[in-house]
Amino acid sequence: MSYRGSDKEGKVLHHPKEAGLGDAKETGLSGTSIGAHTGMGAYERSGVTVAGGFLAAGVHCGIKKEKPDLAMLYSETDCIAAGVFTKNKVKAAPVLVTKERVEAGNTLRAVVINSGNANACTGKRGMGDALEMARQTASCLGIDALQVAVASTGVIGVPLPMDRVKEGIVAASKSLSPSGGSEAA
Questions:
Q1: For residue 73, what are the β-bridge partners?
Q2: Longest Cα–Cα distance in the chain
Q3: Which of 39-43, 86-90, 159-163 is predicted least confidently?
Q4: Please, are residues 45 and 13 in contact by the beta-carbon 8 Å criterion?
Q5: CA distance 15 to 8
Q6: CB environment 139-158: b (16+ within 10 A), e (fewer)
Q7: How far is 41 from 62, CA to CA, in rounded Å?
Q8: What distance in Å separates the CA atoms of residue 151 and residue 71, rounded to the nearest whole number?
Q9: Could you give the percent of the chain with pLDDT greater than 70?
Q10: What is the pLDDT of residues 48-73, one digit of tens each?
């Protein structure tokens, strides 16, 4: 478990029990959650941007009716990437794009994720859309498209509404912030 914080006196704590919060199951601080000091001896989950150098954003681009449906995570420096990918014969375009980048040993700087549409079983168009998501993200961030991982989840067999997705990528890139982890979630 990743957990770090300090008590009121500034003593560094590495486990929720040290803060008198009980174990990870009781507090919800498990998996990849990282605690952040609130200044009052209490802890709260801070998300993917708690580590320095990471920015995130979550926006509504119109894939879903109302809820946020596009997220972006950006690193100010190159990151070594690793991944575990499905062995299923049918793989969605974003899985293929990201798998290729990780297996090639590319460093990554960003991940763009949409929900509401899996971009799966969409053929050549789906592959083109996944690559365009990476290109658009890279263009907005001033990085190489090979440094962008792509992920999608949602309805299978329906093409992405790329006009909305591109607008969402631009909006997310402009909204990136150290406190954007909760919006990206």
A1: 56, 111
A2: 58
A3: 39-43
A4: no
A5: 15
A6: ebbebebebbbbbbbbeeeb
A7: 40
A8: 10
A9: 75
A10: 888 889 999 999 999 999 999 999 99
Cα–Cα distance measured from residue 130 to residue 151, given in angstroms and rounded to the nearest whole number: 8
pLDDT digit string, tens, across residues 84-129: 999 999 999 999 999 999 999 999 999 999 999 999 999 999 999 9
What type of residue is 2?
S
User: Which of the four pLDDT bands, split at 50, 70 and 90, describes residue 151?
Assistant: very high
Residue that has been written with the tokens 């053929």 in this structure: 123
Using alpha carbons only, give the angle 183, 71, 123 rounded to the nearest 5 degrees.
155
Q: What is the pLDDT of residue 45?
A: 36
Secondary structure element (H or E) that encloses residue 99, with its range: helix 93-103
Q: How far apart are CA 70 and CA 75, in angstroms?
A: 17
Contact indicator for 137, 173 with CB cutoff of 8 Å: yes
d(CA 57, CA 183): 6
Residues in a beta bridge with 114: 70, 152
**Euclidean distance between CA atoms 48 and 114, whole angstroms:** 16
What tokens appear for 107 in the block? 């460093």
SS3 content of the chain, % helix, strand, coil (to 5): 35, 25, 40
Pairing status of strand 148-155 against strand 107-117:
parallel
